Amino acid sequence: MNSSQLRLCLILLCTTQFVALLDFSITMIPLPQIQESLGFTPGALQWVINAYGVVIAGFLLLGGRAADMFGRRRVFLLGLVIFTLGSLLGGFSQSPAMLIITRAVQGFGAALFSPAAFSLLLAVFPEQKQRNRALGAWTAVAASGFVAGLILGGIITDLLGWRWVLWINVPVGVFVIALTGLLPEGRPDSESAVKSLDVWGAILVAAGAATLVFAFANSEHVGLTSLTTLGLIVLSLMLLALFVWVESQVESPLMPIPIFWRRLTGGANLVSLLANTALGPTFVVVALYMQEILGFTATQAGLGLLPMAAAFTLSSAWAGPALIAKVDTKPVILGGMVLFIAGLALLGLSLAADASWAASILPGTLLAGIGYGIAFPAWTVAGIEGVDAVDHGLAGGMLTTTQEIGSAVGLAIGVAISIAALAGGDSAAQGFSYAILVSAGMVVIGLVCAALILPGKTTTLGTVQ
Asked: Count of domains in the chain?
């Protein structure tokens, strides 16, 4: 390929990753408008986000394995078609069920094309220097996708209506589909072609995560401490335990269990899971607080979240890696999480019905964004350190899976806490405050786990190839 063709391939692949991250955040802002338009209950509203995240979490590793087995370009194209159709149909939704189903379809499509796009990127840029530049562009675009979703979600909703936050994907998807033939085929190697596809593993982890989310979402009808809620939580844990058993039995598991027994890898994934129970809920709760309590428009709410998103993006790009290079992953994780907890606690204690954005939101979200941004690259490095190079993609996929599951479960818990507070006679602002403080408590547990489980002096950023 000449330089122009390489540049076009990079643009196509980065565009899909941008859209995958954008679609996670772009629906956070118009949640009040979606609720009013389709008649969502407060507890069910979270499924607009969680249907997408849970399905990605359940099928991301399966998508990566399918790309290796059946050809990367083929799976990339299939995922992109599914995602684009889900976006188109989702914009026409006339009921909560239809929107939730189409969001799940979008998530399944993204779970197919995202790992295939990453593999294609490595195939297009085999030379190390070019590959590093391409991976830098990939990372930067992915981070900007989440931030762009917050801004575009508000602007599009105010100008065109919430349905266009889904329809905006359609022309982008059609454009990339039309040019997919320019990408290398990415044929499967002989070893991957003979492996079996662990479909049951993907179904079990997705079902376990979805059941756990549903347990908290359904608590608005039956109560947070009811037997039904507790029974669903037990059922979800049984499904996840069955997933672990299946993974220990099948020939080609999605998640090889022995990797998790390593203190560094298993500990990093546990920290990722617990820390992300706070990140997603914080964005959603603050977006709802600004619109429902402070009276912000959708555009103002998106801009109001920008400082936290920018702090997270800049800290993860520069501050975190710089600290890892100087010290080690464990102290960076611990320090970042302490700042994250402090920011969440400040935010949770500041939310009030008569507060201003500058006083109630800005200080806490900035500190939380900086803390999370510092810790995020450190546990990412820890999660792949000591893993064989051939399994780096798998280790990265595992971190993404725990991140998505943590965010989905954390959002479900936060919404359940808010609803329970309202049912108990507290104000909406107090309910939002309790949700943030509970999230801070989950990160405290993650901090303790990091301190006890992660080994000291393991790596620096410069040793990771």
From this structure: 3
324 lies in the same domain as 282: yes
Q: Are residues 403 and 447 in the same domain?
A: yes
Summarised one tens digit per residue, pLDDT across range 253-311 is 888 888 778 889 999 999 999 999 998 889 999 999 999 999 999 999 999 999 998 89
Percent of the chain with pLDDT over 90: 57
Query: 406: domain range?
Result: 256-465
pLDDT at 463: 40
CATH code for position 296: 1.20.1250.20
pLDDT, one tens digit per residue, over 302-347 is 999 999 988 988 888 788 888 988 988 999 999 999 999 999 999 9
Closest by alpha carbon to 435, among 308, 287, 222? 287
DSSP states of 323-390: HHHHS-HHHHHHHHHHHHHHHHHHHHHH--TT--HHHHTHHHHHHHHHHHHHHHHHHHHHHHTTS-GG
216 and 269 in a single domain? The answer is no
d(CA 425, CA 222) in angstroms, rounded, equals 17
Give the per-residue pLDDT at 192: 53
**Which residue type is seen at 33?**
Q
- Do 42 and 174 have their domain in common? yes
